[in-house]
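Problem 12. The chain below contains 647 residues. Write out its predicted structure in token notation.
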Amino acid sequence: MSKLVTELHIIGENGNMFDTDMEYIIPLYQRAYAWEDKQLTQLIEDINDVAEDSNYYIGSLIVSKQFGRYEVVDGQQRLTSLYLLLNCLGIKTKPTLTFACREKSNYTLRNIEELLLENRSKIDMDRIEPGIQRGIRILSHELTKDHFDRESFMEKLAKIIVYRIEVPENTDLNRYYEIMNTRGEQLEQHDILKATLMSYLSDDSEKGLFAKIWDACSDMTGYVQMHFISKNNAVREAIFGSEWNSMPPNSWQKYKKAISGTTQETTGHKICDLIEKNFKVEDDEGYVDGDVRVRFESVIEFPYFLLHTLKVYVSLYGVTHEIATSKIVDELLDDKKLLDAFNRVVSCGITDTGRIADSKEDFARGFIICLLRTRYLFDKYIIKREYANDSADGEWSLKSLYVSGQQSKKKAYYGNSEFTRSGEWPRTNDWRTKTNIMMQSALRVSYTSPKVMHWITKLLIWLSEADCKNIKNDAITKFDKVAENIAIDAVRENFFQVCSNGVYAMGVNTPHIVFNYLDYLLWNDDRNGKKKKYSDFVFEFRNSVEHWYPQNPSEGTFEQWKDCVDQFGNLCIIQRNVNSKFSNMSPEAKKSTFKDMIVKGSIKLRIMSELTEKNGDKPASLYWKERAYKAHEEEMLGHLKKACNIE
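Solution.
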């Protein structure tokens, strides 16, 4: 880790982060302490969410060493909150936090104990700073709630770390602080990781090369090729070929040749850049596809992409933990543990060639190459949201970057990524592209948290294995099946293996992937048939599992259904913003009231609505719960069982 970066544990065996001979001073140009309920309760929740097996990064503290003390440039709100938290927990702190020229703030910090004990006779309340007093009151309230487990909280607090980063000497602190606040810039974990990995390289030119590739990959807007900007597109063509669409090389020397000798703009910004008076950020105007201007939005942010890439690297190089019984990477993709994840691989990882800790320079080179190659595959084969012109309505997209024009007049355009064998008709590719889009979007809307998007990791590993052999032959035509197998495994494990004795009654706990994979199967069957009823269907974020025949009918209108109301045949998935109105109505009332939602909704929901009809003298609701739901369930389970190869 860089000499300017220090890992601070909030509490530890040797005391706490304020047990130091160095004073932290909050300069006058910063605002007064202002954290309130939202930020302070979130701080408590973040600590309570810490897992037992690893450290947890909670933020960075930017300081400048001035005359034997640390002047806090950024992060003072969190620093002050941690100081208050320790005192509210009864942990003694040295008086190492002070505010420049704010006598009330300093007086309040020195009298926290008296405020907690409400010994007003011992303190001058006119000298108390209201913001800090409010923070003490909020934290004290949170720490004394009935469900608060102090012992567990203290164990987790011991795993919390803050990174203290010193700015370079002679930095214009007022200018830096102004930029940080007006642009919202702050040093994130991935910035620290970048500096750490670069520190493994001894040659400055190699560090510069690493930074250029990292900066290009860190911009998750658009396609990575467009983030390599140089005169006459020399760098872009050296890395991605004359058509800008070839796999980046797997050789460090080739990158040194392609990038080191050229002038290139980067997407990242150094502190010295930020404090320049004429500094500004250029907007991304988007790219042209025919006469339509388009822009793309990634389904994940850069810290999560780094975690996916780390897992790809571990898989490609067979990295294991030096302790055979320990995992080298966590299953959960937790951006708060980004640094911890990389530290574990570097410190404890071994490969066929030895310990990674003994060859950190090789790891830095190997990882940055893996990062660029994985980003290229991610852009080309993992879905994005595509927005045409100035439209706010995006659609799922699987496009590749192509180039038109000659020499200096070359211009990027976008067309469907290729999933065909050589010699097949373009129409065949459009068909396969659509299938891939539908399968991936089914996975995307099923797993809404980036922490559990393991399907992305699995697809990237499949694309990357054996020097990307699967994109170089006919195997790519089966890419939709690779994605579908991920869905099948999830449905088997979390639905069929959970439900026993032929009873499928998980109710609202039924995993979303079951509904979305079923919709995919129904859509695919329909597309291969003659009717084409569901050609308009798209996967959206339908995140609420609901009962078609309600659990709790509107009082006095129709009878309650107790025995089978949680059966799969009686369940549907809808958008969360309509569930409160939807929940207690009868099936026929839902059918008539929510026509517009149903016609654009889940395919299973559309079928349920169609089946909600009276039968002879029996009202639709009564017929639904007596017979129709069961027939519907058997049909839907039939589709799932056949696809999942369930007897």
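Discussion. The CA atoms of residues 526 and 532 lie 5 Å apart. Students who got a different answer should revisit the alignment rule from Section 12.3.
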